[in-house]
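Notes, p. 3: input format for complexes.
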Amino acid sequence: MEVIIQNDPEAASALSARRIAQIVHAKPNAVLGLATGSTPLRLYKELIRLHREEGLDFSQVTSFNLDEYLGLAPGHPASYRYFMREHFFQHINIAPERTFVPSGLVAGPDIAKYCAEYEEEIRKVGGIDLQILGIGSDGHIGFNEPSSSLASRTRIKTLTQRTRQDNTPFFDNPDDVPHHVITMGVGTIMEAREIHLLAFGDKKAEAIAAAVEGPITANVPASVLQMHRTARLFADEGAASQLARQEYYRWVFDNKPAWQAF
Ligand code: PGA
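Output follows (262 residues plus 2-phosphoglycolic acid):
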């Protein structure tokens, strides 16, 4: 994994955005895997700025979101479909019909079929070129909670109490946080050609140290990214603060050959 440590979340997000812009310039119909939560907000702001000020064109891009709460309609302010529209889609020129977010309204036995179809949609457009990820304080990616199979596919998951607690700020009442979600699987995520894991703040330091420098284990789903050929971590100082090799990662980044910089 390439570990990129920047002084603040803005600088880290801007670097990730610059790489995404490179990908979209090179392949205008690129397929982006998108994430929600507080972590990618600065990244979306920067991509919106690049669209407005530098003409970054999303008109042929397709996007797939990682996950959605079951039971929430697309218009619910805490749904991830709503989040994406508010914070990203309505500010760029992406075609709404090419933005895929799992539905929160499938139920019962239909869920497995729906999840298989979501995977099929990803396959139909040739797979995900770039996947954005946040990390849960428990090491989850998407909503793949600890103990998720590292080979898992898109499916229903039950959230841990810790994740429900972490996500209460997005809801009026802590009891309103749904228990169940649809999430891309760890195996689905690993098929993306490039992965950007973003992590900001001291609260993520323990999970990041375990994911980057600990053993690969389903107890820390993000640790599987050590097996990905092109996974990059964009962290601020807080999230990187428990990494043993911080100085080494900084040195490597600062001494890249010019042609490798982005
Ligand atoms: P956050 O969530 O960005 O709101 O911290 C990250 C995650 O749970 O993946």
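Residues 71 and 104 are 5 Å apart (CA to CA).
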